[in-house]
Amino acid sequence: MKTVLILAALACAGPAMAADNTLSASERKAGWKLLFDGKSMDAWRTFKKPASDWKVVDGALAPEPKVSGDLMTKETFGSFELAFDWRISPRGNSGVMYRVTEAGQQSYWSGPEYQVLDNSRGEPPLQRAGALYDLYAPTVDATKPVGEFNRSRLIVNGAHVEHWLNGQKVAEYELGSPEFKAKVAASKFRAWPFGTSPTGHIALQNHGDEVWYKNLKVRVLAPASR
After folding, report:
1. Which residue from 41, 49, 78, 118 has the least number of CB within 10 angstroms?
2. pLDDT for 5
3. pTM of this prediction?
4. CB atoms near residue 215 (< 10 Å)
5. Tens of pLDDT, residues 4-29
6. How many domains does the structure of the chain reveal?
7. 47: domain CATH number?
């Protein structure tokens, strides 16, 4: 009887987690695609440059803090779900931007940013980990201790966006809504074509601090398929 109960519990646990920078059979079936396999940077280039200036460190993407620019996908995405793991250095700052275009001088001029941060820096709520940087604060601090990898999901489905951090939804908003436009108008982003492009690149920010990203995988969604 004990053996039966153990087997039943294992069956309910779902498919095993894939190894770092790989896809499980269930992920492949669900339409996920790797953006980074732990070795190759073929899917990436630097913002406004033809090649990448980041490096691979122990199976993770990492910038040269004082040298590298923002790293971005060669491919563009409209509606998608992005999964990624990140580890930040003590008091470090970074972010993941989406629908980035190269019309402006910086990637954040166009791309809304999922904030990556060591919250011990003491930043205000709108700038803490999991926020839509400077516009929507996370509802809870779901970060792990600095030095550990956090697991994030970013869902961009038409105008609807969700930020997830370590299994908790920490922010949700509608691009182009009256509320969103009002927040942008009251921020530094009002001078730029921020959050207006229906498609664009996914970008990893080099803010001058050490940061590491791995398990970057994406699946395309049908627009407004919620």
Report:
1. 49
2. 37
3. 0.91
4. 24
5. 333 344 333 334 467 999 999 999 99
6. 1
7. 2.60.120.560
